[in-house]
Every structure is written in structure tokens, then in C-alpha cells.
Design goal:
By secondary structure, this protein is mainly alpha-helical. The protein has two helices and no strands.
Length: about 70
């Protein structure tokens, strides 16, 4: 039963990151700029998204480790 809360928070983080990625992609694609500038923005946005996802996963792993230690005690 305790895992359901962890699954829900993971799904929420995933949904937020997916929404942010879609928003960035649509904003960049509809911006009136040269293609080379647009491609650079997409690459930079994807790098930022990857960093955010990595941080979120590290935080989630840390919370999972702490919860496991608390249940063992």
C-alpha cells in the first residue's frame, strides 16, 4: 500500500516534465526565427529537461531510500 504514494508522485513528476517538454517544443516551433536558432533552442531545451529529470530521479531515489530505512527501524 505504501508504494502507491511513491508511484503517484513518480507519475506526477513525469507528467509535469512531459508537459514542460511539449510546451517548450511548441513554443520553439511556432517562434518566428531561423531554423538554426530554433534547432539550438530545441537542443538546449532537451538538455535542460534531461538535467531536471536526472535531478528528479535522484530525489525520488533518496526519498525511497529514507522510507526504506524508516520501515526497517
Amino acid at each position: 500500500m505504501e508504494n502507491s504514494g511513491e508511484n503517484e508522485s513518480g507519475k506526477l513528476i513525469g507528467a509535469v516534465l512531459l508537459g514542460a517538454a511539449i510546451g517548450v517544443a511548441l513554443g520553439v516551433l511556432f517562434a518566428p526565427e531561423k531554423g538554426s536558432v530554433t534547432r539550438k533552442k530545441i537542443v538546449n531545451g532537451l538538455k535542460d529537461l534531461a538535467e531536471e529529470l536526472s535531478e528528479a530521479l535522484k530525489n525520488e531515489e533518496g526519498e525511497t531510500d529514507e522510507a526504506g530505512k524508516q520501515t526497517e527501524a
